[in-house]
Amino acid sequence: MEKPISFKVNKQQVVGMYHCPDEGEGPFPAVVCFHGFTGNKQESHRLFVKLCRALAVAGMASLRIDFRGSGDSEGDFSMMTISQEMQDARAALKFLRRRAEVDETRIGILGMSMGGLVAAYMLGEHDWVKTGVLWGAVAHPAKSADNKRKDFEYIPAMNCYQRNGWLISEAFVEELYTLDPLEVISNTSASVLLLHGENDITIPVGDAYAYERALKQSGHRVALRVIPESSHTFDSLAWETEVLGDTIAWFRTCL
């Protein structure tokens, strides 16, 4: 079963797609998915769609949302901040846990790229989340901020940066310098799987090793799998198949 859903955060509508197994009575384990910067609830080459449908076949429910300002959700991308995305993420977790057919004691989180940073914060904040998977996750947001200031054109009259039609605010960039996902995720009680493309030029594979070190130093169960030769979005059939297979197997084991 696939069902469009929506809920409000600060009077703005967040839109998502909820997936639930067609067979079985439940309650089912469930996963919430957080997309990356300029992404949406489908993600690149419909990765999130494919993942959530496969999770349903494997007996797990899932929810993939558009952060406000992205996809079909209300809001303007130029006003987006990571703090706002974290508000949406918390609301999505709350929505998922309240579903009658979902087992609230078996919740997982998946985040991709900048959504991986959001996922890291959610894992660190919620000790009831059992497991998480991070795809090409941002570990050093200050470096991401530096890159955006370098690669985006600044528009003084709007106090915004623009590139390829995307506008981001100075507030978004400034906030990145204040975030520390490595410190926050060290507070998690969840097991974590890290998947990262070897040839990722958007978020270097070193970010995955940084997450691995932070989690190991905190004594948590962590597994790192670097996808040979893969890009940031795993955009080949072989890379996609490996990432989806590893992710589904992880959630089946840990949830």
- The share of residues in extended strands comes to 25-35%
Number of domains: 1
Q: Roughly how much helix do the residues carry, as a percent range?
A: 25-40%
Number-wise, the strands total 11
Topology order in helix (H) and strand (E) letters: EEEHEHEHEHEEEHHEHEH
Shape: globular
Please count the helical segments: 8
CATH superfamily: Alpha/Beta hydrolase fold, catalytic domain
At the first level of CATH, the class is Alpha Beta
Radius of gyration (Å): 17 Å
Distance between the termini: 20 Å
Folded structure, characterized:
The chain is α/β, with parallel strands linked by helices and 255 residues long. It has a single domain (2-140, 180-254), classed as Alpha/Beta hydrolase fold, catalytic domain (Rossmann fold). Helix content is 36%, strand content 27%. It has 8 helices and 11 strands. The strands form 2 sheets. Strands 1-2-4-3-5-6-10-11 form an 8-stranded mixed sheet, sandwiched between helices. A 3-stranded antiparallel sheet has the order 7-8-9. α1 (47-57) packs across α8 (237-254). The longest helix has 18 residues, at 237-254. The chain is globular. It starts with a strand and ends with a helix. 45% of the residues are buried. The model has no long low-confidence stretch (mean pLDDT 96).
